[in-house]
Every structure is written in C-alpha cells, then in structure tokens.
Write a structure and sequence with these properties.
The chain is mainly alpha-helical and 277 residues long. It has a domain of 181 residues. 75% of the residues lie in helices and 2% in strands. A two-stranded antiparallel sheet has the order 1-2. A hairpin with a 3-residue loop joins strand 1 and strand 2. Helix 4 packs antiparallel against helix 9, helix 5 packs antiparallel against helix 6 and helix 5 runs parallel beside helix 8. It is flat.
C-alpha cells in the first residue's frame, strides 16, 4: 500500500515543453506558502491531501496503472542486462542465440495465428522466455569456460608434472627443495583436476544447449502440425549443474544475477513478450 501512496503523492501530468509536472507536489507547496499568511490553509490542505491520497491509493484502476509502470521498468532493466550479456558473447554464440530466438518467435506466431487460448499462449510465452534465458546463461558459461581452458594446456601441465617427478627422484635433493617441489606438484595436480572438470562441464553444457534447441524445434513442429500445438514446457533436468552450482560467469556475474532474480519472479514481473534482440 505504501508504494501506491507514494505514487499518488507524486502523481503528475505531462505538459508540452515541460515534461512531466508533479501536480500534487506543486499544490502542496502552494498551500504551504499560502499557510504562511493564513494557517487555516495548512489544515485545509492536510485534510484534502489525506483524502486524495486515500482515494487514489485504494483505487483498483490506479493500482493497476502503478503496477503496470513498475513491471514496465523492471522489464526494461532486465532487457538491458540481457543485451549486455549478448554483447559479450562471440559471434558464433550470438548467431546461435539469434537462431533460437527466431524459432521461439515463430512458435508464438503460429499459436497466435491459430487463435490459441490466451492462457495457453501466455504459458507458452513464459516457457519460451525462460528457455531463452537458460540458453543464454549456458552460452555465457560456455564462453567463460572456453576462455578459462585456453589459458592452460593439458600437455603443458603433464609435462611440468613429469619434470617435477624427475627432479624429485634425482639424488642430492635437499629437504627444503623437496618440500617446495612437492608443494608445486600438488598445485599442478589441482590445476589438472580443474582442467578436467572444465572439459567435463563444457561437454555437459553443450549437451544442454542441444537439448534446449531440440525442445524448441519440437515445439515449432507441434505448432505447425497441430494448428497451434500444445503449451510449451520449460521443465528441464539439465546435465550440467550450471544453474545450481554457482559457476563463475566472470565479468558477467552482475548481469547474470540480475536476470536470475527477474526470471525467478512470477511470470508477470518479467514482462517478456517474445524474443527481443
């Protein structure tokens, strides 16, 4: 209710050349000035303001307008984060995402042309929106996994381990040197394990990307063959644990977190109305 009261207090009208003018605030300021000459204006203004705020804040139509404005702002902010994530992808990944977006748009178009029930259309729109977000998130993770893997080669790590093993086996190694070399070897083993984990995660991510593409392809085929098709589902059991394990997204962490919050909210908050480039 407090949000509606604040919106009512700052209610305004758009004036050509001036932009949006907070009418209520100006009236309150005017009454405050008049009250300096006659304090009665203060009591009159306070009563009128309380009545105005109560009437507006409890009006269902006004509440819907406030909610719509809040949803529009949230949707716009989410789209900015999405565009930033897309911008950071390499060209092949952007093309791959664009192809999926096109198919999602065609699914909704076919359902609309078939005059599918509005509730089913909304469910499909929300499901496709969530699939697109999971797909983008997987692409972002794949991009950073590839970048991380390029910084080290498995052959180089194994060569360094072999060199250390020969050094440790050499005669005359002092205890201090042996301890240092042994510690270095453990570090290299951990790096090799991280590289193996990175490669395995990449395989899982690629599998999940293919699964989402297949699910959208199926939705499009169903839509074409069944005069609109069934409601699209976004239920997936991903091979990768990318959505649950807190995998690092590098410099994209902030945008990913913001979109995660948006897509974990009820569908109406997301404000998505189909693929957006």
């Amino acid at each position: 209710m407090l949000d509606y009261v604040k919106a009512a207090f700052w209610i305004g009208v758009t004036v050509p050349g001036l932009g949006r003018v907070p009418v209520n605030v100006l009236l309150v300021a005017g009454c405050a000035i008049l009250g300096l000459a006659n304090p009665g204006f203060w009591f009159l203004a306070a009563a009128a303001e309380a009545l105005l705020l109560t009437v507006l804040a409890t009006n269902p139509r006004f509440q819907r307008a406030v909610d719509a404005g809040r949803l529009s702002a949230a949707a716009g902010e989410a789209e900015l984060h999405r565009q930033e994530l897309v911008r950071r992808l390499d060209l092949p990944a952007r093309k791959r995402l664009a192809a999926l977006d096109d198919k999602c748009a065609r699914v909704l178009q076919v359902q609309q042309e078939a005059q599918a029930p509005e509730i089913g259309l909304e469910s499909s729109r929300d499901a496709l929106s969530r699939l697109r977000w999971i797909y983008l998130k997987l692409l972002v993770a794949r991009f950073h996994l590839l970048a991380s893997g390029e910084q080290v080669r498995e052959d180089d790590l194994k060569r360094q381990l072999a060199d250390l093993d020969r050094a440790l086996a050499a005669p005359g190694v002092t205890p201090a040197l042996r301890e240092s070399q042994s510690a270095t070897r453990k570090i290299l083993e951990q790096r090799l394990q991280n590289l193996d984990r990175c490669q395995q995660t990449l395989k899982e991510v690629d599998s999940d990307l293919g699964r989402i593409e297949a699910q959208v392809d199926l939705a499009l085929e169903n839509a074409n063959l069944r005069g609109g098709g069934a409601v699209v589902s976004a239920n997936l059991e991903l091979a990768s644990q990318i959505l649950d394990d807190g995998l690092s997204f590098g410099d994209s962490e902030r945008d990913v977190a913001a979109l995660d919050e948006a897509y974990s909210a009820p569908p109406a908050r997301i404000g998505d109305r189909g693929p957006v480039r």
